[in-house]
From TrEMBL:
Record keywords: Membrane, Signal, Transmembrane, Transmembrane helix
Residue ranges of every copy of the L-type lectin-like domain listed in the record: 30-295
PANTHER family: VESICULAR MANNOSE-BINDING LECTIN, VIP36-LIKE PROTEIN
GO cellular component terms given for this protein: COPII-coated ER to Golgi transport vesicle; endoplasmic reticulum membrane; endoplasmic reticulum-Golgi intermediate compartment; Golgi membrane
Source organism per UniProt: Mycteria americana (Wood stork)
PROSITE patterns in the cross-refs: L_LECTIN_LIKE
InterPro entries in the record: ConA-like_dom_sf (IPR013320), Intracellular_Lectin-GPT (IPR051136), Lectin_leg (IPR005052)
Signal peptide positions on this chain: 1-25
SUPFAM superfamilies: Concanavalin A-like lectins/glucanases
Gene Ontology terms, MF aspect: D-mannose binding
One Pfam family it belongs to: Lectin_leg-like
Protein name from the UniProt record: L-type lectin-like domain-containing protein
Amino acid sequence: MAAAGRWRAGLALLVVALGLGGPRAEQTEEHLKREHSLSKPYQGVGSASSGLWDLLGNAMVMTQYIRLTPDVQSKQGAVWNRVPCYLRDWEMQVHFKIHGQGKKNLNGDGFAIWYTKDRMQPGPVFGSKDNFLGLGVFVDTYPNEEKQQERVFPYISAMVNNGSLTYDHDRDGRPTELGGCTAMVRNLNHDTFLVIRYVKRRLTVSAACRGRAGSGATAWLRELLLSQVLIDIDGKHEWRDCIDVPGVRLPRGYYFGTSSVTGDLSAIFVGDASGRVSALLPDNHDIISLKLYQLTVERTPEEEKRDREVYLPVVDNLKLPGMEAPLEPMSGLALFLIVFFSLVAIVFAIVIGVIVYNKWQEQSRKHFY
Ligand SMILES: *[C@@H]1O[C@H](CO)[C@@H](O)[C@H](O)[C@H]1NC(C)=O
Ligand SMILES: [Ca+2]
């Protein structure tokens, strides 16, 4: 419960910080959009005819939450909004719970929040289709890449795709991620939230955790977001603004959804330092609520022009880690060869020049005599 202790420390700090932090520069007004929100008692969820949300795979409606996947291997589940979203500026508040028997980093796989063109399509990216069009925000609880010294899991990341990019599961999506952060969101006795904001083409993702459970979470989250403080606990940013990317262009009319997968961990056993062998156990992935707020912001005429409608998702000036041209520093040999051949070329040019000049002089002399 060390993590929980740190979260509580964070809360104490937060109360202080709330008084100090100024409001965000943007003055916004927000309205809950019921047609894009999901909350208790989950009326009509998964029913064929009525209801705003569809269930997929192993997802189940319970009284207190929607279980995307139970803590059993090779399960996947999703819940998708039936109504396309035409809002320009919005905020999605995801109240979730990830819990299981597994020890730290021996669980999986995580879940995703989607804003995509296609819906209800199972696939390999946290239970949903690859080469998607739109936005995916991932809460990855299992490090697939072996060399993960500098990255601590669970890890939150975001990806925008125009359909051409493939999520690299073996590398935890690193080659295509827009940004990310570590967030200790497993097995907490507290309310855990992910807040995805999309305002004037700026995408921000924040992770938050509230010590006391109960009502009033929305007002509390609002205050937290307005405070714009980054809280540093034990030198590790465990409670924080996680992703902030400007110039993200997302088309309107896409669908919100969330999906999860538990992966196949059956064959893997790991012996710990004491020589004991422990099995890798997947997590329950529960969604308690999805709340979508319309944000009303004022735009200058320039901003109106800049924020024109797009038909394919795109991120301005994007430099993905996987797309960096491998510009290696020039080796000593290469440098030597370049200098050497340049000198040879210069000497050659001088010799040619002298010969031509002599020839020309000879010719001139012939003309005079
Ligand atoms: C889709 O995105 C990729 C990578 O960002 C880019 O290279 C490609 O040109 C884009 N395709 C279209 C049709 O915009
Ligand atoms: Ca992973």
